[in-house]
Amino acid sequence: MGIVLGDNQYGKAEVRVVRLDRDGERHAVTDLNVSTTLSGDLADTHLTGANDKVLATDTQKNTVFAFARDGIGEIEDFGLRLARHFVATQPSIHRARVAIERFPWARLDVGGVPAAHSFARSAEGTRLAVVHHDGERSWVTGGIRDLTVLNSTDSEFWGFPRDRYTTLAETKDRILATAVAASWRFGRTEDVDWAGAYTTARAALLTAFADTYSYSLQQTLYAMGARVLEHVPEIVEVRLSLPNKHHFLSDLSAFGLDNPDEVYYAADRPYGLIEGTVLRDDAPEPGLAWS
Amino acid sequence: MGIVLGDNQYGKAEVRVVRLDRDGERHAVTDLNVSTTLSGDLADTHLTGANDKVLATDTQKNTVFAFARDGIGEIEDFGLRLARHFVATQPSIHRARVAIERFPWARLDVGGVPAAHSFARSAEGTRLAVVHHDGERSWVTGGIRDLTVLNSTDSEFWGFPRDRYTTLAETKDRILATAVAASWRFGRTEDVDWAGAYTTARAALLTAFADTYSYSLQQTLYAMGARVLEHVPEIVEVRLSLPNKHHFLSDLSAFGLDNPDEVYYAADRPYGLIEGTVLRDDAPEPGLAWS
Amino acid sequence: MGIVLGDNQYGKAEVRVVRLDRDGERHAVTDLNVSTTLSGDLADTHLTGANDKVLATDTQKNTVFAFARDGIGEIEDFGLRLARHFVATQPSIHRARVAIERFPWARLDVGGVPAAHSFARSAEGTRLAVVHHDGERSWVTGGIRDLTVLNSTDSEFWGFPRDRYTTLAETKDRILATAVAASWRFGRTEDVDWAGAYTTARAALLTAFADTYSYSLQQTLYAMGARVLEHVPEIVEVRLSLPNKHHFLSDLSAFGLDNPDEVYYAADRPYGLIEGTVLRDDAPEPGLAWS
Amino acid sequence: MGIVLGDNQYGKAEVRVVRLDRDGERHAVTDLNVSTTLSGDLADTHLTGANDKVLATDTQKNTVFAFARDGIGEIEDFGLRLARHFVATQPSIHRARVAIERFPWARLDVGGVPAAHSFARSAEGTRLAVVHHDGERSWVTGGIRDLTVLNSTDSEFWGFPRDRYTTLAETKDRILATAVAASWRFGRTEDVDWAGAYTTARAALLTAFADTYSYSLQQTLYAMGARVLEHVPEIVEVRLSLPNKHHFLSDLSAFGLDNPDEVYYAADRPYGLIEGTVLRDDAPEPGLAWS
């Protein structure tokens, strides 16, 4: 019996790079959180502490800032450039993963006119991209998080099994609220309109959430994933993680009051957590996409 | 020498009440975090544990939900109703403080039409109100937080004193970013258009941030406070707390690259913190307003 | 009617300085979060943007690191040195406030021996100091936070008034849990054994929490504050803020089970919040101590 | 081309159950955060909203509280009981995952005596268990998080490759600090001394961290994993995720000061992140253990 090194990786997490693009007076802001992760021929540093194959995480950070000098563009492309660079230039690095969060900013409105160089953080959701590259192939997923939504009606929940431990009442009208966390896998990495895919996928998620008359959050989840696939042909698979942000009807009867579905208590914990995948039946194999 | 009880207060913090208002198909959401704090003749419970003068914090919570049954309206009014109730009905309670946060929701847009009962959390800022009542008088402050803004130019910082420990370079062009936290004191509590005051004050803060050519964050702070006073006559004093969310220009020279004010590092800690008050020279005494 | 500048201050928040002291092989770690706040003749920067009286917050940060070079010692002393430096060297600065958090580390135990230079973060609580200096006088408060405690019995709560909105049952046995946040004011700033005062005050808080048979959290609060005053003569006033971390007995009757005070649900929000002051009847005026 | 449902699961997250065990006056506290996740024949609820196969997450929560009535014991056992119950009693549920966090409490010391029923949250780390059960087999992993450690010397980092973007200086003496997050896979689920395994694994991690003279955090990681395997025969694989909590030596030269490895700046972001697996060369297949 011996002890051996298994899978391993390392990198620099949460590099907060902000880039300004200037078109005369009119500026644009790109605000990112970039995490790079490398793996490959790294047994030496684990077993002996020899670091000649370890591209320092500080160097990875520097590379992010240096690459931003030439422009960032869409985060999926920026991730591809970075991932391919690390694998191409470091013989010991056989695989790179670059995860990027893009925080949303909206132009401030000043006197009815969009400001040229003033911005406010918006609630449009944080745009996500994760890129893998193994020296030959690349895989890209996009996504979104920090998008909190609520339907104040058109949600029921009933017909579930009742065992010894079931006390939940059935309901024909409840609040349905969640914080959307979605990732989508692209079937290819060339000739994709990354920005258009993001905008369309985001709109599909919101529209499906709003217009699905729901008998379970699972049903809403499936509708949301399917809607993305219907509208974005380059996307082949969608993964959703939806916390059920419970709003419990407040029982006011002790105070001699009724409560006709008006007053709710918004709970923190525990919460339901619904997770699911919706995909095309001819989706290519995921490869490293979700690693 | 003896040991005595000094100032004290107690209450229920962070009651998360959500109310739906229904106008046929069209719903509205009011999403609050309410904290009640009472003080008065409370020596007994501290000194002997006798609780006959202690309105239970659980009862305070129940009262918040019960009062929401009749409608919430503007948070300043809801706070006044609650604060006056506690003092009026509990002989031992001589003063109440009700602090309310209102989380912003925006109607979802579905196919170009605002949804009747679907919403998304927005980034318009969390609206705040703090109400004090002492049995005779009431005081109200409003406010906002969670409003993050950035100017990508029109900000300089130079001319500051240089002592032994000063290394900061002067700059004629920098990013200026902050998360606005503002409170404003109303000069009266009757006949105030609370919603209008909030909307106007918020717009004044944003506009002043955007259109002030800034030589220091202090200057911007003063401009923001003054702008609120200029546009909302009922407000007599504004307090602002503005973290300077530093964006440092990345030094790319080691990589043979220049950086013409394009690539920045967004720092977490430490950060500058600028706090100041702007008020009318005939503002009435604050009384308990800021307690 | 005019608009004027009111109270204002500025500084650098959350300077994370860590110092090692080496006594041969045996090291000690001092891990601080320092926030400096200055006020004085600062109207110019607010009104015109002229910064010749504004010691840059970057300089304040540098000063913290430079002063750490000569040793930090007790945080109350380090705060006094910094506060006095800023007021003494900057004519425009009339008052300084230095707030310090010290994070606790304990020596790791390796094979039964305390390690010479290996440490783990401990849960002893974060030690606090806030120093004010106005050019002539200084004021010091100490304190602690992040100290979470629980009594599993010896806590009752009953006899409280019952109004229309009261539903809480009386109890003769409940869990009492809180996260202690305490500040204490020293009556003088010279010849104080800061470390001893902290250690004794912390032990007094914990002992009083544990050995007080409690009829209300207010009663426990008072006992904790009084115990500190009884054991630390240099402390003249104690302020406590104690969230009531509710543990609700789980109702298992629907499952045919009793619950003899064994199974609880630990709630997040809302929570009771009990705040109070205990002081000596001959305590000197607080001056700027609590500002 | 069609759209289909892929992998999915659902459950109740973060059930905060606290149990008291009473041995006369002497109490013990078990403080848990339990998350249950079920999967199986769940296509209906996704595709049509029919919920007859969906054990409500509210019922899952109730089950956790009800099962705590008979005692919790070791969290690995509690997880096994819950996971097997859900699969055994719900025909539609083919697999259950139960993840448990146990928060550490230490007995308060009152006058040199360990208190019978007073406790303080400790920093020993949060104990973790994840149990999977598929109706036939069970898999158990244990683990720990929230364990922050620091070596003030005996850490070097040099010999790493230098490319165009490398600026990091080599060092023969640095602070090495991390927040340990570890999971370990047990080779069997019967006849394991769970508590003993946890205690021994935790001690092995800390001892290896302290006594490894380190040339890279990867080397320390491997030493920590191997040490666990050497001391706990039931554990067959260890996964570690170690953020490199950077402490940068402060450059005081601008102030005319040297800095003989004494004054550091503790950075928040970005941070290195080192992840790796150490396992026995005859470890059985992981099956569902890490799912």
Automatic annotation (TrEMBL), chains A, B, C, D:
Enzyme class (EC, first level): oxidoreductase
Catalytic activity: urate + O2 + H2O = 5-hydroxyisourate + H2O2
Entry superkingdom: Bacteria
The enzyme's E.C. designation: 1.7.3.3
Short name of one Pfam family: Uricase
Biological or metabolic pathway of the protein: Purine metabolism; urate degradation; (S)-allantoin from urate: step 1/3
Assigned keywords, A-Z: Oxidoreductase, Purine metabolism
Family per similarity comment: Belongs to the uricase family.
NCBIfam families per the UniProt record, alphabetical: urate_oxi
Biological role: Catalyzes the oxidation of uric acid to 5-hydroxyisourate, which is further processed to form (S)-allantoin.
UniProt-listed PANTHER family: URICASE
Protein name stated in the entry: Uricase
Organism whose genome encodes this protein: Amycolatopsis thermalba
